[in-house]
Design goal:
By secondary structure, the protein is of the alpha+beta class. 59% of the residues lie in helices and 13% in strands.
Length: 78
Amino acid sequence: MWYTTTQTAQKLGIDRKTLMRYLKQGRIKGYRIGGWTKFLEDDIHEYLERNQINKGYPPSGEMEKRARLSMKFIRQAV
């Protein structure tokens, strides 16, 4: 399925201008079709997989490490 620049930007949660900048930088694939820039659904999914973030949470082992350090500092303070 093909998506327009506006649809793709909405799907990625970015501004249309940012999407066009990513296209020029080669960060996402796009195609010129009849004077319009279009994006394939598979290319959008590929971009999302490559640029997946951890939703603001640290890596899995990092949480346990932070908890141990916090307990250590609490014990020292008491």
